[in-house]
């Protein structure tokens, strides 16, 4: 009877703990993962790192020209749906910039809205804009809008739709910004404002907001020292002010960036993030990982210890 109980405990432990399978995308580099649950599958919207060559991106820097979407029903077998959007098909993107950085995707009114940052064509301005591409299915193909969202300059878009139907766009430009979106999901309904309550010092980027039991959790990578650690802050309002609670994941000394999203799937919470598992000497070629995430009874999140293989 004791052995049977131990067996049951072990089965439950391993069923609830995703381990021994990182990185989860193994046939290409992938980074900045936004995971979403649509229907009964997990969809993964990462950046797609490639290696720059002379005349093909900036050597020694991030290089991304398209997006793939992956999906899975078990977090182990990932189906690559192929290229769903490319820089060469977006009218406002500078296709010499290879800057299709961290994306997000959200469902509303029968459509899937894919948000992505990229560098503007020089004729349209400088720096990064954030665009929207729309599809009938979560795996695309996504049709880009002709212009980026007016009034937004930055990277790392994240969209959250609250219970009352109000949608919010979060993005980064040194700090983290928030603005309301109109119900068409394509235009701002308010001016972007810096999110209040986050650390004053150190780069903050990669916002990902989710709600649990009436609390809004804003998660973000933060350069508190040399490389990015994952932190979170909470509020009772999606626009803040927020209160920093603590660490989701320690900084790594090997990979300067990290970037996260959090989902609940079949009753278990998961953290998606990245590391340079397949490129130990060059941290701009990254790989997506996932690990189980647990809440304490008081609503705080237990720090996630990364697993690898
Ligand atoms: O992937 C390019 C940039 O690196 C992202 O936009 C940041 O969040 C960081 O992961």
TrEMBL record:
Keywords per UniProt: Carbohydrate metabolism, Glycosidase, Hydrolase, Polysaccharide degradation, Signal, Xylan degradation
Signal peptide range: 1-20
Site features described as Important for catalytic activity, responsible for pKa modulation of the active site Glu and correct orientation of both the proton donor and substrate, chain residue numbers: 156
Keyword NAD: no
Keyword Amino-acid biosynthesis included in the entry's annotation: no
TM ranges: none
Gene Ontology biological-process entries: xylan catabolic process
Gene Ontology MF annotations: carbohydrate binding; hydrolase activity, hydrolyzing O-glycosyl compounds
Family of this protein: Belongs to the glycosyl hydrolase 43 family.
Protein name: Carbohydrate-binding protein
């Amino acid at each position: 009877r004791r052995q049977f109980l131990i067996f049951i405990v072990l089965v439950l432990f391993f069923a609830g703990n995703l381990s021994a399978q990182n990185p989860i995308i193994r046939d290409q580099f992938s980074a900045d993962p936004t995971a979403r649950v649509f229907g009964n599958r997990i969809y993964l919207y990462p950046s797609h790192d490639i290696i720059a060559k002379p005349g093909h991106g900036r050597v020694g820097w991030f290089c991304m020209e398209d997006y793939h979407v992956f999906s899975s029903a078990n977090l182990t077998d990932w189906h690559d749906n192929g290229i769903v959007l490319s820089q060469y098909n977006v009218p406002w993107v500078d296709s010499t910039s290879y800057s299709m950085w961290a994306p997000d995707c959200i469902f509303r009114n029968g459509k899937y809205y894919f948000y992505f940052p990229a560098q503007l064509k020089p004729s349209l301005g400088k720096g990064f804009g954030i665009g929207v591409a729309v599809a009938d299915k979560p795996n695309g193909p996504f049709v880009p809008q002709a212009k980026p969202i007016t009034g937004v300059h930055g990277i790392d878009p994240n969209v959250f739709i609250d219970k009352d139907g109000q949608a919010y766009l979060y993005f980064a430009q040194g700090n983290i910004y928030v603005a309301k979106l109109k119900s068409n999901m394509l235009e701002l309904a308010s001016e972007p404002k810096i999110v209040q309550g986050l650390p004053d010092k150190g780069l903050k980027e990669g916002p990902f907001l989710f709600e649990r039991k009436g609390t809004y959790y804003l998660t973000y990578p933060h350069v508190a020292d040399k490389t990015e650690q994952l932190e979170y802050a909470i509020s009772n309002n999606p626009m803040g002010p927020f209160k920093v609670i603590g660490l989701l994941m320690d900084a790594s000394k090997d990979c300067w960036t990290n970037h996260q999203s959090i989902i609940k799937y079949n009753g278990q919470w998961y953290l998606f993030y990245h590391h340079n598992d397949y490129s130990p000497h060059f941290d701009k070629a990254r790989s997506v990982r996932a690990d189980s995430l647990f809440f304490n009874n008081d609503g705080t999140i237990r720090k996630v210890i990364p697993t690898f293989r």
